[in-house]
Amino acid sequence: MTELIKTPRTGETLPVKAGKRTNPLANVFDELVRFAQSRSLFMLHYCTGCGAIELPPSMTSRFDMERLGIQPMVSPRQADILLVTGYVSVKTLKRIILTYEQMGSPKYVIGICSCTVNGGMYWQSYATAKKLNDYMPVDIYIAGCMPRPEAVIAGLRELMENIRQGKADSWKDYYRHYDHYLGHQQRLFGETWQTPTDVIAEARHYGLFGPDTLGTHTALLEQHQRPLEALEMKVDIPELMARR
Amino acid sequence: MIELILMPLAAFVIGLAMVLMMRRIGARLQRRVGPPLLQPLWDIIKLHGKETQTSHGLIHELGIVMAIGGFVAAVTLMPLPGMNGLAEQGGLIALVYMMMIPSLGLALGVGQCANPNGSIGISRALTAMLAYDIPMVIVVFGVAFFYGSTSLVQIIDAQQAGGFATWGIAEMPLLAFAGLFAMQAMLGKQPFEIYVAPAEIATGPMVEMGGKFLGGLFIMQCFQLYAAGALYTLLFLGGGENWLTFLIKVFAVVAIPMSIAFLFPRYRTEDVVRLVWKWPAMIGLLGIAFLMY
Ligand code: SF4
């Protein structure tokens, strides 16, 4: 099902344009904000795979991530980094994409473990998504089965350096090449796949709408898209209903 | 007039240092190094500089403003060394009111997020507020009864008149203890931290807050730590003769609940209410009874 088809994205980096930011405050203190962003990272650790076992040591007394300003957060709204630690099954991938789309930009994705790079030892598994960067832009991969806390921290440091220099903007790639990522998602989940987030509208909002944002896959999405409805409020407990 | 700007500013800066102290204490107790010096500031700048600011509506934004504004108003009612602000006009009763506004503002804001975790969290937070406000009010009015005044300026003057022997903590040890207990609950620190509960309800009230909204809550936390420490210092430790003693006292007061906090798991909501209405409230009432006879 998932074969390594040739992906136009790998290796090719887009020229970084210093565009106007949507947040006026960020525009004024760009440099300061970038530094603050690199020194304060809230991470959402999506611990699906075995690689997650190396995160507690890197957060607690032995390696202590907090001295780098990295601390765990619990909801996607608060987080900056999405850590995907290990193999990603097709089912969890859906949740990861939902989580990723809810995070506030600028957002960064780190793939920990060889399994996120190329499937690792789950290469032959029918239920595992092989390459994480087919489905969402990944900032840094930390390879290893599993990478030791030193490697995790080295990877995070590299990300911090990239952020400070303004190079870690792969989140923009998701908007610029939404069609590409959506195509891979549809390949796994079927053509009726949709998320509650209107990525195309967001791309317009951030001024990141490009020629590759729309394409055949987004046309397919539009065809199947059902408008989001608010959940119906109802109490379905028989005892309660009888009492009313 | 200028005091009204300087006092919240001083409170914010001291509050930032307190947040750092809190995190450092936590780190030391867990044998870690802890965050660098300006970490609380970087967090706040980063959160305000995020590109996505997911708002859930007007009340969501106003709620955060109310949460910070309540503390800013409260801070101007607490005399600092050399600055009285509105303390002469306001007094203790206004102060106790102001300290309740942030929780209500937060409740409004979280209500509009319509996230079930947030609603659970805020209902727990308001229940906890109901719990700790009873001993808090007993303590505050016990002190006011003892000094025969609700003006903080006069209370401080009376305490500073005779050195340590006339400090509130020497005159009313039972009330001071009850106040410390209630402060632990007021700061929402373990074991009274059920409404945040990151692993169970995803930080409760904060669950839908991202970007500047979370940044606003971080600022609120600075003010909250400062307000709690300053209130206790003013009531029981004789306020500040000068900035040095004031700062030492305020930081020492806040360090106590922080050091206790990281050693405990948490109580359930009903247990919080039971515990807080039983011990600090009873000790506070006993303290008032001693003062009367
Ligand atoms: S790379 Fe190894 S340790 Fe990491 S998720 Fe895959 S099998 Fe587990």
TrEMBL record, chain A:
Biological processes annotated in GO: aerobic respiration; electron transport coupled proton transport
Keywords: Quinone, Translocase, Ubiquinone
NADH:ubiquinone oxidoreductase-like 20kDa subunit domain residues: 47-158
Transmembrane segments: none
Gene3D superfamilies the UniProt entry points to: 3.40.50.12280
InterPro entries, A to Z: NADH_UbQ_OxRdtase-like_20kDa (IPR006137)
GO MF entry, a single one: NADH dehydrogenase (ubiquinone) activity
Cellular component annotations (GO), alphabetically ordered: respiratory chain complex I
NCBIfam families in the record: PRK06411.1
Name recorded for this polypeptide: NADH-quinone oxidoreductase, B subunit
Organism annotation: Thiocapsa marina 5811
UniProtKB/TrEMBL annotation, chain B:
Main location: membrane
Keywords: Membrane, Transmembrane, Transmembrane helix
Membrane topology, as annotated: Multi-pass membrane protein
Keyword Methyltransferase: no
Localization (cell): Membrane
InterPro entries xref list: ComplexI_Subunit1, NADH_UbQ_OxRdtase_su1/FPO
Any Pfam family matching the protein: NADHdh
GO-annotated cellular components: plasma membrane
Signal sequence bounds: none
KW Membrane (keyword) present: yes
Record field: transmembrane: 6-22, 58-80, 92-114, 126-147, 167-187, 213-237, 243-264, 276-292
Protein name: Respiratory-chain NADH dehydrogenase subunit 1
